[in-house]
Write a structure and sequence with these properties.
alpha/beta, about 200 residues, seven-stranded mixed β-sheet, globular
Amino acid sequence: MNDLVTICADVGSVAKGNFGWWSSEGESGDKPSTLASHVRTTLESGAPVALGFECPLFLPLVDDELSLTSARPGEGSRPWSAGAGCGALSTGLVQVAWVLQEIRRQLTQPAQSFLSWQSFSAAGSGLFLWEAFVSGKAKGDSHTADAKLGAEAFMLALPDPTQSNAVVCRSSVYSLVGAALLRTGWSTDPRILQEPCLVIRASVT
């Protein structure tokens, strides 16, 4: 997809200036509202959009109750359930849903959403959701910089970002982004709650 626009958002308190987003179109901002407007404009231009959020977007549902809060495979020493991961998860729960709701509210023509890269590639249009993993020494000096690093990592993984998926759960999963898509009307299929998304990790440069 040569016309693909890659966008990434680093979630955090908007009031405290801890939210930032960056787009491969050369635009950036520090508010969810400007992010939603940019995604909507891009979608309505006919370009496919890959929108990432720097927060956990799905969780493993393992059989072992003692491991319910363990790190996802690939997270290493920075599990979703501790420290920054837990904070980003709780903030992302509401900000991801808000952004998706606002994009959908602003759209003047319908657009499809995808968690499957193969389905998105076949369609050649619409909104693809993915998770950015920007942590430790890979982080930048601002929230917009972190968003840019996440987006650039995704672009480096093209043309097939599935080959760079950093988190692959062998167990079933609970999809938080799937729940957000259902809540905001992007999807009506409850099976999306069981669908993981791609996780693209930014590398230390």
